[in-house]
Amino acid sequence: MTLQSLKPPLLIRTLPTGLGILTASLGLATGASGSKAMEKSFPVSAGGSLTLICESGDIIVEGSSREDIRLVILSSQDLEKNFSFAFKRDGNALRILSARKSGEYKAGRYNLGMQFKLSVPDKLNLELETSSGHIAVSALECPSDSLPLKAKATGGEIRLEQVRARAVLKAVGGDIRVKGLTGPISAETSGGEMQVELAESPRVECSLLTGGGNISFSLPSASDADFTVETSGGAVTSGPPLELTAEPGSPVFTGRLGEGGVKIGLKAAGGKIRIKPYQ
């Protein structure tokens, strides 16, 4: 099902029994201008997965001791009038799609005061995408090593805090800020800053790329890694014990931390790059 194929009605949707029956009776808070809030819960427990794809809105996910997923949707506009929603549960996996019903839409330009707030089990696989908004994830562990935490935001920033996962992040026109990540990271932004802190020494290759901002990268000083660092428009600095060197006139710096081994690539097309120990 694509975003364009979502259709009303909003009040009740029943999915085929082959996918697991899910009857969505939506709790709508109604004001004078219509329904601007929705609250739901889904029987998805620790070890399961959540996919959320929306045309408009911020996505905020927080790990908790819950044994299900609790979703609250808030908007400055009437939800039933302006948006379509689809909820599909297949075993211990939940997929949520949201789209505007009508009107001109351009990715990255219309947030419409929309927020998707989710309280989830603290061990859950995630795939999140918004075409106009921010993404924030905190206090969460992705239990499957083979499934990365994927997040893509157009027109907004991505924030991770105290997350254990293999993170794959892409921001179109926004910053990427990661604090206390346990696990490797592959991140790209076309026009924003990057601040990434790894709480543990990475065991798998990491890469950061920004097309128009600075990069600040931190990892434990006792890590073993080989660095390749490149910038075409700014300075490169590193704190001890890492020393970076480059051939005269070359924008590419290399250096080894500890015994080396794990490859870490940092590239900024037009900004500074700073590498420092994780505090």
Automatic annotation (TrEMBL):
Chain ranges of the DUF4097 domain:
125-240
Matching Pfam families: DUF4097
The entry's protein name is DUF4097 domain-containing protein
Question: Which species is the source of this protein?
Answer: Candidatus Glassbacteria bacterium RIFCSPLOWO2_12_FULL_58_11
